[in-house]
Design goal:
- This protein is α+β, with helices and mostly antiparallel strands.
- The chain is about 20% helix and about 40% strand.
- It has two helices and seven strands.
- The protein has helices at about 15-35, 65-75, and strands at about 5, 45-50, 60-65, 80-90, 95-105, 115-125, 130-140.
- Strands 1, 2, 3, 4, 5, 6 and 7 form a seven-stranded mixed sheet that branches.
- The longest helix has 18 residues, at about 15-35.
């Protein structure tokens, strides 16, 4: 449940939260386009995921890969594209990276929907690799 950074052979990538964020966002949304339930591989057993409509005040989080896979499967995200407008990234505690993504989710059967998604990437326990996993993800439609 992790992804490893490979950014043109740069060894300093893990110290650059923007490089980590951009690399992650590219892989995550590419996976969303090709196989939506496949994004569950980025999460761990203690990860949390919410996906909310704009008018929802509270959404119970799915926890762990299996619950997250089931939640993603229920969303009907097949044949969806994304148009990412901005990515903001910050370093956090213990080497974690906080990412905020704004953009449009574009289902083939309807018009684009504006969204915001926040990720907290935790470092994997392997010291010799630049590996991260999604500790938390909150997705919300904005319209």
């Amino acid at each position: 449940p992790e992804f490893s950074l490979t950014m043109n052979g740069r060894s300093d990538v893990e110290d650059d939260p923007f490089a980590v964020g951009v690399s992650f966002v590219r892989g995550y949304y590419d996976q969303l386009h090709s196989d939506p339930t496949g994004i569950a591989k980025y999460f761990a057993s203690n990860s949390s995921f919410t996906h909310s409509e704009s008018d929802c005040h509270f959404q119970k989080a799915a926890r762990g890969q299996e619950e997250i896979r089931a939640a993603i499967s229920s969303l009907g995200l097949e044949d969806v594209q994304t148009d990412i407008k901005s990515i903001d990234c910050q370093s956090s505690l213990h080497g974690a990276v906080l990412i905020l993504v704004n953009g449009f989710l574009i289902p083939t059967s309807q018009g684009p929907r504006k969204f915001v998604q926040t990720f907290l990437l935790g470092k994997s326990g392997q010291r010799d690799r630049k590996s991260f996993f999604v500790a938390n993800s909150c997705f919300r439609y904005l319209e």
